[in-house]
Every structure is written in C-alpha cells, then in structure tokens.
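sorry for the late reply, my laptop died twice this morning and i had to redo everyting from scratch. anyway the thing you sent over, i finally got around to it. pasting the sequence first so we're on the same page, its 322 residues, then the predicted structure underneath. double check i copied it right bc i was rushing
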Amino acid sequence: MSYTLLSSPLQGFTDYKFRNAFHKLFGGIDTFYAPYIKLNGTLAIKKSYQLDLLPENNTAIELIPQIMTNDANEFLFVANYVQQLGYKELNWNLGCPYPMVTKRGLGAGLICDAPKIKDILTKVHNESDILVSMKMRMGYEHPEEILDVFPILDTFPLKNIAIHARIGKQLYKGGVNLDAFETCLKNTKHLIYYNGDITSVASFKKMQQRFPSIDHWMIGRGLIADPFLPSMIKNNTTAYPENKLELLQEFHQILLDQYRESLSGDQHLLLKMSSIWEYFAGLFNNPQKTFKKIKKAKSFKNYQLAVNEIFTTEKDLIFRKS
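ok and here's the structure:
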C-alpha cells in the first residue's frame, strides 16, 4: 500500500527556513503544514506569517497553510488571504493542547463546543470555496469528545481530518490512545490521517500494522528529533546514511545562519537554537550531557565552541540508538 508522509506543524520550529533546509538535505516529507496563523482579534496578517507563506519562500515544497481561530470572520479573512497567494486549502487547528490556548476556547479547547464548530464551518462553506481540512486531538478532557463532533463534521465536504491520538490535557505526556483512535475510524465517513508518536521506523511499522487502512501519516516532534526519519521510513531502512554527521552539521549551520539574520540579538538566537537542541541532543549517546553544553553557552562565541565540541568529540557516539 502506498502512503504519504506529512510534516505536522510545530509552532516556533517548522517555519519556511526549517522546511526548506529539511527538504534540501533530508527529504522524505511529501507535504508540509505551516504553523498556524492566529489573528488575536484583529483582521491583519503578521509579517512573520506573511513571510512564512510567501510562495517564493516555499518553491520546492508542497505547503498547506493552517489557522487557529474560533471566529468565522477570522477564518474567512485568512481563507481569502491564502487564496490570494495561490493556496487552495486551509487547515483548521483544533489540536493545540497548551492551556494558554485551550482556556480561550481555541485549539483542542474548542472540540467540546460542537455548535460553534458547526456555525463556523457553515459560514465558511457558504461564503468561501476554500478547501477545508482539520487537525484535531480526540478531545481536551476525554477522547469521546470528538465523537460528538463527527456527526457535524460529516455534513461538510472536508478534505480530511488529521487526528493526534491524545487528548489536550495530556499535552505530549503519556502514550497515544490507539484504541480511541480506532474508534474514531469507525465513526466518521471522512478520510482520517494519523498523528502521534511516530519516532522511529519500528514505531511507524507498528502503526501501519495496527491501522492498515491509513495511508497518510503525520510526523511532528519526531521530525525534529531525528531529521533522517522520514527518508528512512520511505526507504524502509533503519540504517543512517554514511554522511549523517555532515548532513546534521550542515542542517544546523543553515538554520544558525538564517536565524542569525532574522532574529534581533544573540540572546534571541541562542534561545531559538537551544530549543532546537532539546530535540537534536537525543541523537547523541548522552543527550543530557550534550544539551548541557548548549545550555551553558551564554554568548554566541561560546555557543559555537560548544557546537564544535559536540560534533568533534562525540562524532563516534552519534546515532547509536536503534
């Protein structure tokens, strides 16, 4: 069975700089989702969102924009904006689990409000021809919440529903609930994509065996923690490429150079790179030791020294995990 690999959007990580560098060096992802656009009550698109979606910044990849909103007028405004850029689809985020979002009735916090979801989709489908897809958790408090929404979603011509197999209040803690996800498959007519805890070739194969009808698979945090993963899945191998270290170094350097140009001041840059190294460190034999070197670097010069030390002294230890 053929399948499609998708990059789940991660706010603060998978912007166009990351996506382009990833596609150039690693590949394996068929379609990328852009981090969500959030308007904060004003009908204006922030410059960072504009840059992220500009077609000239995404020439080599297939990209789908995403919105986070609980307001139909915001949805229509963003739909019109992305259509002007040439996009035909807009993904609606009902999956973000963070309390600062969910407490405002956004992301996973909106799943329990089926009437509002219906009102928004009704207005959007009546007043726009944008193709709508969804990205959802199974609920915020319990996984049955999504089951109350499916009868409403089934009345709309959605392209697909990507489901992260957790509930919102879990954040990313604990395991995915595969039994609840299987229940979702039995309770909607829509095409379902799977998302959640694809972190290795072995975990992907286990998911494939469990859900043979799924042909679209979304990789989120696993994409940053191991950039080689999508291509390894596509090539059905657990072997890293011979030049793995050089590729990771080049990827890091591209991101460092581009973020240094766009971020204001070294402290912002160090915070950005530190957040990326929280994931990268897991590729090394001693993740805590590796990340500690990054965290101790309080200046750009010391950061560079720390990175050089990691890639030099630990090169024989990298990628030892199965």
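The first helix runs from residue 16 to 25.
thats about all i looked at so far, will dig more tmrw
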